[in-house]
Structures are given as structure tokens and as C-alpha cells.
């Protein structure tokens, strides 16, 4: 009985805070045409206090999306263009000797912002990528002997171009695992493309207004943490993740030769957090199996290793995830 009451209270709480999602999507829609999945994924990452990796060809409004999100939330935004000659100090900052004060002073880098766009992250060498790693995972930056806490909310959106592999440094598995979601961005529809042309040639630039503030984001993140996750849903998440490690135990013998390594425990945590955020976006105070299924591809896509056999047969991680979702019993 208590459980029912608490879920009812949670539903009321979510209903009171649901205007937050409406305001943000309304603000983003002023500049972004279509790309509903991208906007929803950004919201899930923001509400789950995670980071997002976007993969798509140039010109699909990836940069514009996070810049607009920062403007709508009235938060600090910075963009880092990753290049082969970039140094860790260019990302996190460095110590500069001041002749006037005869001492070293800290000059903070662009990582000190609420929303950080790491553009073409796979163009920078491992040393720079690992500098970003501490900031993403620990929410802090060490410059010299001093450690600085990063502002909350803190979201890193990294982009990578799937078509140009020359002069790139593929992200190591350990770093890719730090991203809550990996989202593949597709082309707009014919109708959307027509709207994009119209908006961009009539010279009318819509002004993005701040709809919410960073403190409201932190409040809503706390609400998302309270969303009810039943034990059956927890078991369902564990089954999905275990099916990526031991597919034969779930009647998926064919997949055993396709997967070189399965998803880590971070994937289970990510599925639970993203499912809660998705339930909040849909206006519910509890998670249902459809929420888990809705976020599953984005959470697991970058956490499953493919064997040479799978690559030779052009089998993708998305196909493996779909097969697992079709086989694992839904509570």
C-alpha cells in the first residue's frame, strides 16, 4: 500500500516538474528542425547527469543543438575543436608565470563550463583524450598541484565523423565506456530539409531565450533519481547486460561468435539511469520495460565488442542489441 502511495506521490511530483522538459524542447525547436531523437538524447544525458557521444556526418546540427541547449538553460558553454596538435593544457588549462606577482597563476581552460562540446574528439591523440577523461568521470580537474571542482550541471557532448578515418585516433574502449549514450544521427526528412532551407535563406534568425536556469536542472536531476525502479525491471536490465556477455545462456548461440566482449557493469548503471530519465520525459514516476527498450541501443551500442567474424559479415552492434531485446524475457 505504501508503495502505491509513494508512486502516486512521485507521479504528482513528476507532473509538477514536467514543464521543464516542455520549456527546453520548445526552446530548442526555435533553432533545430526535426532531430527529435538528438534532442531527446541530450535531455536524457542531462537529466541522468551523464555524457553523450554523437556520430554523424557533418552539417546535421550537432554543434547547434548543444549550443542552443546551453542558451535555453542560461548556462556557460564552450567548444573545443580537437586537432592532432592539441595539448592537454589547451583543454584543462595551465600554470602561467606572472612577472608582476612573481608567482605561478592558474589559467583555466575551456573545460570549465556547464556544457562542453568536444568537436571531432577522435582527431586528438590519446594524451588529450585522457585529460578529458578525468573531467568527465571525476567532475574535477587537476592543474599542477591544485584540484578544481567543475560547475554543476556538467555535460560533455563529443562528436565524431564516421566517414573520415584518415588522421584520426580511435577512442579506446575505456574512454568510450565513460559516455552514457552513443547516438547515431541521421539525415532529416524531405519536409524537414525544405524547412531548413526556408529558415536559412530568408535571413530571419530566431533569438534563443533562456527558459530555465542551471539550479532548476539540478532540482530536476534529484527528482529523476527518485523515480521508482522495480526489482523486476532491475532483473530485466541485468538479463539484457548478461546476454551481451553470455549469449548462449539466453538461447542466442549464434551471437557467441559475434561478440568479443560484453557490456560492463557501467552499462547496467547507465541503463537504469537513462530509463529513469526517459520515464521522467514521458511524465511517469516509475520505469516500465518500454523505457529500458527505448534507451537500450544508445546505452549499449558502444559497449559491445565485435569479433572479426561479425565485422566480416557486416553485423553491427545495433543488430545484436535488437536480437537480445527480442529474446530476453520482458517482465
What does this structure look like?
The protein is of the alpha/beta class. The protein has 2 domains: 50-194, P-loop containing nucleotide triphosphate hydrolases (Rossmann fold), CATH 3.40.50; 227-327, Magnesium chelatase subunit I, C-Terminal domain (Helicase, Ruva Protein, domain 3, Orthogonal Bundle), CATH 1.10.8. Helix content is 49%, strand content 15%. It has helices spanning 2-17, 19-29, 36-48, 62-73, 88-92, 126-138, 173-176, 190-201, 214-226, 231-245, 253-256, 265-281, 289-300, 308-312, 317-327, and strands spanning 52-55, 77-81, 93-98, 103-108, 115-119, 140-143, 146-149, 155-160, 181-184, 259-261, 305-306. Helix 10 crosses helix 12 (265-281) and helix 13 packs antiparallel against helix 15 (317-327). The protein is globular, with a radius of gyration of 21 Å. The mean pLDDT is 86.
Summarize the entry for a quick read.
With 331 residues, the chain is α/β, with parallel strands linked by helices.
Amino acid at each position: 500500500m505504501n508503495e502505491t502511495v509513494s508512486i502516486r506521490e512521485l507521479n504528482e511530483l513528476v507532473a509538477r516538474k514536467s514543464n521543464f522538459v516542455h520549456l527546453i524542447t520548445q526552446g530548442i525547436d526555435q533553432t533545430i528542425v526535426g532531430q527529435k531523437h538528438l534532442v531527446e538524447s541530450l535531455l536524457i544525458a542531462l537529466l541522468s547527469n551523464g555524457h553523450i557521444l554523437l556520430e554523424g556526418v557533418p552539417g546535421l546540427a550537432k554543434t547547434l543543438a548543444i549550443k542552443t541547449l546551453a542558451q535555453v538553460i542560461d548556462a556557460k558553454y564552450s567548444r573545443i575543436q580537437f586537432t592532432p596538435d592539441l595539448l592537454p593544457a589547451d583543454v584543462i588549462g595551465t600554470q602561467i608565470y606572472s612577472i608582476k606577482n612573481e608567482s605561478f597563476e592558474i589559467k583555466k581552460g575551456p573545460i570549465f563550463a556547464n556544457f562542453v562540446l568536444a568537436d571531432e574528439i577522435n582527431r586528438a591523440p590519446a594524451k588529450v583524450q585522457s585529460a578529458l577523461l578525468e573531467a568527465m568521470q571525476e567532475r574535477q580537474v587537476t592543474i599542477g598541484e591544485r584540484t578544481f571542482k567543475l560547475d554543476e550541471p556538467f555535460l560533455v557532448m563529443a562528436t565524431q565523423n564516421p566517414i573520415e578515418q584518415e588522421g584520426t585516433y580511435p577512442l579506446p574502449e575505456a574512454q568510450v565506456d565513460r559516455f552514457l549514450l552513443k547516438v547515431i544521427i541521421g539525415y532529416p526528412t524531405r519536409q524537414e530539409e525544405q524547412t531548413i532551407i526556408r529558415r536559412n535563406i530568408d535571413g530571419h534568425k530566431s533569438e534563443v531565450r533562456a527558459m530555465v536556469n542551471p539550479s532548476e536542472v539540478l532540482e530536476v536531476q534529484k527528482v529523476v533519481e527518485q523515480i521508482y525502479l522495480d526489482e523486476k525491471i532491475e532483473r530485466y536490465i541485468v538479463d539484457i547486460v548478461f546476454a551481451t556477455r553470455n549469449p548462449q545462456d539466453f538461447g542466442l548461440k549464434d551471437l557467441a561468435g559475434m561478440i568479443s566482449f560484453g557490456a560492463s557493469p557501467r552499462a547496467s548503471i547507465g541503463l537504469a539511469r537513462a530509463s529513469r530519465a526517459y520515464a521522467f520525459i514521458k511524465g511517469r514516476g516509475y520505469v516500465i520495460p518500454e523505457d529500458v527498450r527505448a534507451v537500450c541501443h544508445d546505452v549499449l551500442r558502444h559497449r559491445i565488442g565485435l569479433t572479426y567474424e561479425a565485422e566480416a559479415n557486416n553485423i553491427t552492434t545495433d543488430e545484436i542489441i535488437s536480437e537480445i531485446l527480442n529474446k530476453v524475457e520482458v517482465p
